[in-house]
Amino acid sequence: VSPSSPIKATLFPGDGIGPEIAESVKKVLTTADVSIDWDEHFVGDKVDPRTQSFLTWESLESVRRNGVGLKGPMATPIGKGHRSLNLTLRKELGLYANVRPCYSLPGYKTRYDDVDLVTIRENTEGEYSGLEHQVVRGVVESLKIITRQASLRVAEYAFHYAKTHGRQRVSAIHKANIMRKTDGLFLKCCREVAEKYPEITYEEVIIDNCCMMLVKNPALFDVLVMPNLYGDIISDLCAGLVGGLGLTPSCNIGEGGICLAEAVHGSAPDIAGKNMANPTALLLSAVMMLRHLKLNDKADQIHGAIIKTIADGKYRTADLGGSSSTTDFTKAICDNL
Amino acid sequence: VSPSSPIKATLFPGDGIGPEIAESVKKVLTTADVSIDWDEHFVGDKVDPRTQSFLTWESLESVRRNGVGLKGPMATPIGKGHRSLNLTLRKELGLYANVRPCYSLPGYKTRYDDVDLVTIRENTEGEYSGLEHQVVRGVVESLKIITRQASLRVAEYAFHYAKTHGRQRVSAIHKANIMRKTDGLFLKCCREVAEKYPEITYEEVIIDNCCMMLVKNPALFDVLVMPNLYGDIISDLCAGLVGGLGLTPSCNIGEGGICLAEAVHGSAPDIAGKNMANPTALLLSAVMMLRHLKLNDKADQIHGAIIKTIADGKYRTADLGGSSSTTDFTKAICDNL
Ligand SMILES: CC(C)[C@H](C(=O)O)[C@@H](O)C(=O)O
Ligand SMILES: CC(C)[C@H](C(=O)O)[C@@H](O)C(=O)O
C-alpha cells in the first residue's frame, strides 16, 4: 500500500469525547499525508436484533470488509436485553488478542521512567464467558472457560509479536498453582508455542507476584501474555505506571487478520464537547493501525510528533496538568510533523 | 490478659528461613517482656490422612485450642495426593478474612511514601474452590463460587475493622460489570453491611481501575475488601508499593475468633540457615497477633522499635540493601525497645 492511495478503514468515533478525539486523529493523519477513506459508524439508538446490541450489523460488516478500524470510547447504555458494546465487538469480530504497548513517555513524569512492555490479553473467553448460575439461594457460581484453541492462538500471536518487534522475552501470567487445570492448560499451550521460538526467552510468572514485581521494577518485563481477566487487570495497572489510559494505545487482533485499534479510556461525559479531551490514546492507537497497514514510515513520523509534543510540555491538555484545548494540542502535533 | 501472665499461642516456624525469623520474634517478644508459651508445630514429613496434608491434625487442634497463632513461610511439597499447606489451614480453621495492613515505612524509600491502607481478602471461596473440569478435550472450566454467607462475613469484618481502627472508608473491589451475578452478590452483601455503618464511607471500585489508581495514587485508598483472587492480587501489589512481602504483615481471622498471624513471603531456601533473612514481616505479624490479644501497649512498643530500626538504617538485612545478619538486626530492635 502506498501512503497516498486511499485506504478504507472503519471509524467508530464513539461517545462523549469520542468525536472530538476522532477529529484530532483525522487532522493529524491528513497533515501527515496519510489518506484514509474513513467509513464512519455510530452506535445506534436502538438494539439491532442481529447483534443483540446497539451496534448494528452494518457496523460489524464494515470492519470485516475493511479489515482495519479505529474505535473511540463507547458507553454501553444501561438496561437489559442487549449486550455490552465492547463485548459485542470482541465476540462478533473474533478479536482474540488485545495488544497494549506501554512505555514511559519522555517528558511526562510519573513515578516510573523505565517502563517498556507490551501486554497481550486473550480477549474472548476465560472469566468473560458470561456463564453464571445461582445454584441455591445465596450460592452463585461463574464459569471460567479456557480452551486449547484460544490459548494457542493468543500464545502464537504473542511470540510472533515478540519476534517481529525485536522483543526478547515472553512472560506467561497465570495462577496455575490454584487453577491447575484451566490456567494449567493456558501454560501448556504457551510452552508448546515457546518451543517453536528458541530465540525468545520464555518464563511463567504467577499473577500476584507479577503485580508486585510490576510496581517494584517494571523494567523486568518485556512481552506479557495472559488469560482475559488477568490481562484486563494487568494492562490497566501498567497503564497506571506511565500515566493512565489517556496515554496508552491498544489494538485488537481478530479472525482473518482484522485489526481494530482502540482507545480504552472512558467517554468522559463531563468534559465532552468542551474541546478539552486528550486525544493521545486514540492517536497512538491510530499509529498502531498504521503499523498494521505496514505504513511504518508514516507511523514513525506521527508517533515522533506526538511524543515530541508531549515532551516539549508547552501544549498539554487538562488531564496532564496543562490548559491546552484538544485542537491546540492537535495543532502542535501537526506543527511537529 | 496481663502482659506478664503467660499466653498460649501456636507457632509454626515453617520452612527455609522460617525457624530463624521465628527465633527473632521470640527474642523480641521476650525482651519486651511479653511472655508467650509457644506451642511449636512443624510441618510433618508424611501426609496426615485426617487432614490430607503434611499438616497434622494436632497442629490444627493446637490453633483451635489456643485461638491464636503465628505462622512462618511453608513450602508445600510437590506431588499428588495431598493438599496445599496454606489452603489446608484456611479451609480447616475457617480462616475467612486475610487482613494485610500496608504502609510506607519511614526511612525505607520506595517510589511511594504515602501508602496507608488495609486489604481485607475473603479467604475461603471464589476462584479457590478447587472445582475444575475438562468438559471435552481442550476445553476446561473452573468454578468460582460466591456465597452470601461468606461475603456478608468478610464485609462485616471489614466494616467492623474500619470502625475499630479509626478508618474512614471501605472500598469493595469487584468486576461485577462482567461477573454480574457472582461479584454482584458480593457487592450486594457489602452494600447491606455498609447500611449499618453510616459513619464509614462506602464505595465500589472495579478491579482493573483499582489497580490503576493504586499505582497512580495509593493514598486514595483506606480499607479495601474483596473476593479471594482479587485479594490475592491486590494485597501483593500493595506490598510491592512499600517494598515487598518481606516488610508487610498479615493475619487471618477464622471461625470462633481464631487469629493466625502470618508472614506471607516465601521460605527463601537459598538463604535458609545463613542468618541473612529479614524477620520484619513475621515480627510485624506478631504485633498484629498482640493487638488481637488486646496487648496494645506492647504491640505499640514493639512496632515502634521495628520501625525505628528500619528508619535508622544502620542495621538492615541484605534484601533491603544492607549487610546485617538476622541476629544483629534483631538485637538492634531489642536495643530500641
Ligand atoms: C468495559 C469493560 C467491559 C472492559 C473489560 O473488562 O474488558 C474494559 O475494562 C477493557 O479493558 O476494555
Ligand atoms: C501460595 C498461594 C497458594 C497463596 C494464595 O494464592 O493464596 C499466596 O499467594 C498467598 O497470598 O497467601
For the largest interface, the chains and their residue counts are: A-B, 53 and 53 residues
Look at the structure and give the mean pLDDT of chain A. Answer: 95
Extended strand count of chain A: 12
Tally of helical runs of chain A? 10
- What string gives the helices and strands of chain A in order? EHEHEHEEEEHEHEHEHEEHHH
Sequence of strands across the biggest β-sheet of chain A: 2-1-3-12-11-4-5-10-8-9
Return Rg of chain A in Å: 20 Å
InterPro entries (chains A, B): IsoCit/isopropylmalate_DH_CS, Isocitrate_DH_NAD, IsoPropMal-DH-like_dom
Keywords (chains A, B): Magnesium, Metal-binding, NAD, Oxidoreductase, Transit peptide
Cofactor (chains A, B): Mn(2+); Mg(2+)
Protein name (chains A, B): Isocitrate and isopropylmalate dehydrogenases family
Q: What does this protein look like?
A:
Two copies of one chain form a homodimer. Chain A is α/β, with parallel strands linked by helices and 337 residues long. The first copy, chain A, has helices at residues 18-31, 57-66, 85-92, 148-164, 182-195, 207-216, 228-242, 280-292, 296-312, 326-335, and strands spanning 7-12, 36-40, 68-71, 95-103, 116-122, 132-136, 139-147, 169-174, 201-206, 223-226, 251-254, 259-262. In chain A, the strands form two sheets. A ten-stranded mixed β-sheet of chain A has the order 2-1-3-12-11-4-5-10-8-9, with helices on both faces. A two-stranded antiparallel sheet of chain A has the order 6-7. In chain A, helix 1 (18-31) links the parallel strand 1 and strand 2 (36-40). The longest helix of chain A is centred in the middle third of the chain and has 17 residues, at 148-164. Chains A and B meet through strand 6, strand 7, helix 5, helix 6 and helix 7 of A and strand 6, strand 7, helix 5, helix 6 and helix 7 of B. Strand 7 of chain A pairs antiparallel with strand 7 (139-147) of chain B. The complex binds 3-isopropylmalic acid (2 copies). One 3-isopropylmalic acid (IPM) sits between chains A (84, 86, 232, 264) and B (177-178, 208).
